[in-house]
Specification:
Blueprint: E1 3-7, E2 10-13, E3 18-25, E4 32-39, E5 46-51, E6 58-60, E7 68-73, E8 78-83, E9 92-100, E10 112-113, E11 117-122
Parallel strand pairs: 2-11
Antiparallel strand pairs: 1-3, 3-8, 4-5, 4-9, 5-6, 7-8, 9-10, 9-11
Length: about 120
């Protein structure tokens, strides 16, 4: 059974930083692409970033390019999302999700999801 657990969320002032972690179990981690998504109140869930398993392939939403960095540590079955220069618009519940395969797929192909971690940015 695949299990994903997010951590690292919290309250931070605008301009600050947070690092989210996504710890995975129950899967061959180095064979899965891992994505980060977020959902703000009253809005649809949106993709934030994703990391594949080959060549360090990464994908970022335009809204976070240059501010967020995704990375993975296969030895620890963990993916990280370093978030810098946070603004109130980044306030949301952040979820990680896993999809089998070396490259980041479309959202519908992410079959396993975590419970989410709240990120609140005060302005």
């Amino acid at each position: 059974q695949v299990r994903l657990v997010e951590s690292g969320g919290g309250l931070v002032q605008a301009g600050g930083s947070l690092r989210l972690s996504c710890a995975a179990s129950g899967l061959t981690f180095n064979k899965y692409a891992i994505g980060w998504f977020r959902q703000a109140p009253g809005k649809e869930r949106e993709g934030v970033s994703c990391i594949g398993t080959v060549d360090g392939s990464t994908v970022y939403a335009d809204s976070v390019k240059g501010r967020f960095t995704i990375s993975r540590d296969d030895a620890k079955n963990t993916v990280y999302l370093q978030m810098n220069s946070l603004s109130a618009e980044d306030t949301a519940i952040y979820y990680c999700a896993a999809a089998p395969g070396p490259y980041c797929p479309r959202r519908a192909d992410f079959g396993s999801w975590g419970q989410g971690t709240q990120v609140t940015v005060s302005s």
